[in-house]
Design brief:
By secondary structure, this protein is α+β, with helices and mostly antiparallel strands. It has helices at residues 35-40, 43-56, 58-83, 96-109, 161-178, 205-221; strands spanning 14-18, 21-25, 31-33, 112-124, 129-139, 142-151, 184-191, 196-202.
Length: 228
């Protein structure tokens, strides 16, 4: 049975699409780009994706992306139910791969408890960014930003760096909105290969610096007046 911290009230943010990019409308009047949009649109990542698409072919790349998105969406849904103590194994039986990946990750998921936020919106007026965090909870007893990912196989360290940047953004938003400091970043990757990759990192200044670099690049590329 997972415990939930009831004195942290989730907020609700509306989303809008501006020039094909997701933005969140905040209670303070800001309209901020999503964290994932900012990070995924950095020039290095875009160049890497373009190179990959050219290598595997446009149609194959589209198939892989679609399959990966469906797999991840279903896995997240199962994990969300599990952490809410509402797991129903009759639900979604037509997704055996996602269920297998969930089952292999249960041992790691059981290190989570005292859940503060789950699938919750966050924003920062300081950074002018917003997003939706997978989970903020204690992991092995330490308050953590927990990010759930799926993959065909374990990822090398260099492919994980932007996950840490993303999680750092959530930690900053959480601190600004609730006055609470996350102690660490936890990336939990469930793989089709049956592996579960759990990477725990301290929150480092270098991740925040990289986030600010991505924000600067994004604003320069997509500068326009988006306020009302």
């Amino acid at each position: 049975m997972f415990l939930h911290v009831c004195d942290v009230e989730p907020i609700d943010l509306n989303t809008v699409t501006v020039e094909g990019k997701r933005y969140y409308e905040t209670p303070t009047g800001g309209r901020y780009p999503s964290i994932t949009t900012v990070i995924s649109n950095n020039s290095k990542k875009q160049a890497g994706l373009a190179k990959w698409r050219n290598r595997v072919g446009k149609d194959k790349a589209s198939q892989i992306t679609t399959r990966s998105t469906k797999r991840g969406t279903k896995y997240h849904s199962i994990v969300e139910d599990y952490l809410n103590n509402k797991l129903d194994r009759e639900k979604g039986k037509d997704h055996p791969l996602s269920w297998m990946m969930f089952d292999t990750s249960i041992k790691s998921l059981n290190n989570i408890n005292n859940i503060y936020l789950q699938e919750a919106a966050l924003y920062s007026d300081v950074l002018q960014i917003a997003g939706r965090v997978d989970c903020i909870a204690e992991y092995e007893g330490k308050l953590s930003v927990v990010d759930f990912k799926t993959s065909a196989k374990p990822k090398p360290e260099y492919q994980l760096y932007d996950y840490y940047v993303q999680e750092t953004a959530y930690a900053c938003c959480f601190k600004e909105l609730y006055g609470l400091n996350a102690e660490q970043l936890v990336t939990l990757i469930s793989c089709e290969s049956g592996d579960v990759q759990v990477v725990i990192k301290p929150i480092k200044k270098e991740y925040l610096i990289r986030l600010q670099e991505y924000l600067t690049e994004y604003r320069e590329k997509h500068a326009r007046k988006i306020g009302g």
